[in-house]
Structures are given as structure tokens and as C-alpha cells.
Amino acid sequence: MSDQIHISDLLLRTIIGINEEERNKRQDVLINLTMQVDLKAAGRSDEISDAVNYRTITKEIIDLVENSQFQLVEKMADEVAKICLKDERVQQTTIRIEKPGALRFARSVGVTVERTRDDFSGV
């Protein structure tokens, strides 16, 4: 499938990390994601009911991240993927989360995960 929805450079603040100073002060995280979706129905009908509502997904991601206190970026990425895959039309998602300034001499550090609905079946 080649149809995709992209959300780029979603900059949020949250508690993330394992060190004491990370647990006491909100940090920036930068989220980029791609959702593999069949967009034909929405493209033909021009009806929101045929489309994946990326605004709703984004609001849920913002709520999750800003109210979370994950230790690992990997866990955050997994939880963001679950949100994206709630809509049954989303077949797969790729999530990239970065912590700008987390390492000296590096602009950012991050992870990229790819998930399908099968990754969460039985969870």
C-alpha cells in the first residue's frame, strides 16, 4: 500500500527519562509519524466519514504524551503507535520520537518504531 498520512514535527513537553533531573523537569519531544492507510474511499467521496481523522489522533497523542511520565522513549513510541492503530483503516504506522538536546554534541537522540495491528493483538 502506498497511501500515507504524515504528521510532522509535533513538538510536545513531557516528563521522560531515567535520570533524576529528567524526572523533575519537562523536556521537549519531537514526534513524526506516518500511517499507512488506503485513501481511495476518502479520495472518491470527499467525505470525512471515509477518512482517518488525523486531528482526533493528534489530540489523543498530545493528551497521552503531555500527561505521561514514561522512562523510555521506546515505551512512548509504542503507546503512540497504539493510538494510531485504533482506527481499523490504519494498516501500519511508523513513529519517530526524538529528545532534542538529550546528548551533548548531538542535536537530538531518538527512536523509530514500525508497528501493525498484529503487534498489539492479545496485548
Question: What would you note in describing this structure?
Answer:
By secondary structure, the chain is α+β, with helices and mostly antiparallel strands. The protein has one domain (4-120): GTP cyclohydrolase I, C-terminal domain/NADPH-dependent 7-cyano-7-deazaguanine reductase, N-terminal domain (GTP Cyclohydrolase I, domain 2, 2-Layer Sandwich). It has four helices and four strands; from the N terminus they run βαβαααββ. It is elongated, with a radius of gyration of 16 Å.
Distance N terminus to C terminus? Answer: 26 Å
Using the coordinates shown, work out and report the CATH topology: GTP Cyclohydrolase I, domain 2
By CATH, the architecture is named: 2-Layer Sandwich
Q: Kindly provide the name of the CATH class.
A: Alpha Beta
Number of helices: 4
What's the gyration radius in Å?
A: 16 Å
Numbering strands along the chain, what is their spatial order in the largest sheet?
A: 1-2-3-4
Shape type: elongated
Could you name the ranges where pLDDT drops below 50 across 5 or more consecutive residues?
A: none
The biggest sheet amounts to: 4 strands, antiparallel
Computed structural class: alpha+beta
On the 0 to 100 scale, the average pLDDT is 94
The helix content is 25-40%
SSE pattern, N- to C-terminal: EHEHHHEE
State the fourth-level CATH superfamily. Answer: GTP cyclohydrolase I, C-terminal domain/NADPH-dependent 7-cyano-7-deazaguanine reductase, N-terminal domain
InterPro entries: Dihydroneopterin_aldolase, FolB_dom, GTP-CH-I_C/QueF
GO molecular function, one term: dihydroneopterin aldolase activity
Protein name: 7,8-dihydroneopterin aldolase
Domain Dihydroneopterin aldolase/epimerase: 5-115
